[in-house]
Amino acid sequence: MALANVGWAVGDPSRAAMLTALMSGQALTAGELAAEAGVAASTASSHLAILSERGFVEAVRQGRHRYFRLAGADVAAMLERISTFAGQDAVRSPRGAGPAALRRARTCYDHLAGELGVRVFDAMVADRRLVSSPGGVGLSGEGRAFLAELGVAVGSDGGPATACRPCLDFTERRPHLGGRAAAALLTAMTDRRWFAPGPVRRSLVLTAAGRTAFDRHFRLPV
Known about the structure:
By secondary structure, this protein is of the alpha+beta class. 46% of the residues lie in helices and 19% in strands. It starts with a helix and ends with a helix.
């Protein structure tokens, strides 16, 4: 797909709002996405048709309902990179707590982003749980053991189950951890109730259990 077509598809404000909402990792109905974009249902359907045709979103059916989600992690990674150029406009919200909440901690499709995501990445590098690799970063033996301690299944061979990559954080302008290992880590964190949903879509709030766990496992007082 030509770069100009990509820019046109994701650059429309309504389509951008829909894609941003889907960066939560949730599948949403056309009605929910219409509300996110502030447009009529018929207009939302037209936008979703454009995004579907160009491979940015896909539709899934559950019973009588039809949901839309991002077409994959590669689409989410592209959107996060584009957001680094959007600066503060990318975290605008009609609710005053929105920008601060998103900067603090949020989902980046399926993994942890924001200030806490960057601090986790830095802590794992400092503890040599993450090491440099030809693809960017990889899990060390200590890193695999650490994730296993948290109940995250990883392979000892560093194969696809442990795939990880640096993902440039659009608010911090530094990397947080992306990839399948990062997705599994966030799942473990939420299963252990280290995070609760925040005041706006995508935002996460660290719980009391989470603060204790971050101090214990990452040596990060928060």
